[in-house]
Write a structure and sequence with these properties.
Two copies of one chain form a homodimer. The first copy, chain A, contains eight helices and three strands. The first copy, chain A, has 165 residues and is mainly α. Chain A has one domain: Orthogonal Bundle (Arc Repressor Mutant, subunit A), CATH 1.10.10. Chain A is globular, with a radius of gyration of 19 Å. At the A-B interface, helix 2, helix 3, helix 6, helix 7 and helix 8 of A face helix 1, helix 2, helix 3, helix 6 and helix 7 of B. The structure holds a DNA duplex (30 and 30 nucleotides).
DNA sequence: ACAATACGTCAGCTTTGTTGACATTCCAAG
DNA sequence: CTTGGAATGTCAACAAAGCTGACGTATTGT
């Protein structure tokens, strides 16, 4: 593989370097979604279901509105996904206690089982990539990704992690 | 790796760390496509057109079959996209000289102009992210992305870069 | 009392992917 | 020279997942 590492900042930001980064993102994202996609293809679910399940698992009790903000889709689009998940008994939608307009979302046992299955597959690839690349590379990886996000989404990305406190 | 890295590596690959990497990919990819998407939304084109245009620009004269392998879609799906691009005079499809079954794809002037517009927008974000993160981070970024690709796609990713020789 | 919010839903449309079937053209092997 | 297979194009039908717009219903806050 040709090492096009310029090293110096000037060479570093050539269009060719940037183009390679763009293509790397494109090809890597395909790998990133490949394993869950394979699992989902055997059921009546798609990538949209996976995303919903992921963030419900991450933040149990999250509201529909909050999920909308994270996923960046319309409520109609999310609703279609959520409806099938609730119907199929993977997600539990509970009316809010303090504000009864809100619906709080939780995974059922079945939902959690599917989440684990999908998550395991995706994490396995991530783990392998991390191992191959090494800790320093991972730190850089994260740094560039965070810098690439829209500010609005970056805030949400941090918020999800901070809610643990 | 020395022992000092051993303990770190264990912590390092916790599910939580991996989960954060997964979410970073998700949010960053949104940013990655945001700018071209905004431009494309003003025309009758979508992300699929962008991808085709990108790789035709990258490898002028590439065949349909080659493009299929890179993009990973069916020929019917790609054909629909290519047809509109040819009709609109952005792409030129020329019958192969050595093998007349093949079609070699080129951007017209208009096609190249659109490609530049899309590419500029996407590279601007990439450049900003690279600057923010720094050269070392970028090296790590690329390393992890490459490790994340399917072997098949990784070969294609390298192949596209090597064809310059 | 009234406006705003959160959610759900109906209807219709777009993009982009999929299968399957079939025609054409052409290269290459028998 | 014929024929099989490869590369391409195209038709049809369909699905996933996004979108807009409109409307209804609780519920909440002013």
């Amino acid at each position: 593989m040709p090492d096009t590492q310029g090293g110096e900042s000037l060479l570093f930001l050539t269009d060719e370097q940037l183009r390679q980064g763009i293509e790397a993102m494109f090809f890597a994202y395909r790998g990133f979604t490949a394993d869950p996609d394979r699992i989902l293809a055997t059921m009546a679910y798609g990538r949209a279901h996976h995303r919903a399940i992921h963030f419900i698992a991450r933040r149990p009790g999250t509201t529909v509105n909050n999920l909308l903000g994270i996923l960046g889709v319309t409520k109609q689009s999310l609703n279609r996904v959520l409806r099938t998940l609730v119907e199929d008994g993977l997600v539990d939608s509970r009316v809010g206690t303090s504000d009864k307009r809100e619906r709080h979302l939780y995974l059922t046992e079945d939902g959690a089982a599917l989440e684990r299955k999908l998550s395991d597959a995706q994490r396995a690839r991530m783990r392998a990539a991390y191992r191959t690349a090494g800790p320093e590379a991972v730190a850089g990886f994260r740094k560039v990704l965070e810098a690439m996000m829209d500010p609005d989404l970056r805030r949400k990305y941090y918020a999800i992690r901070e809610e643990d406190s």
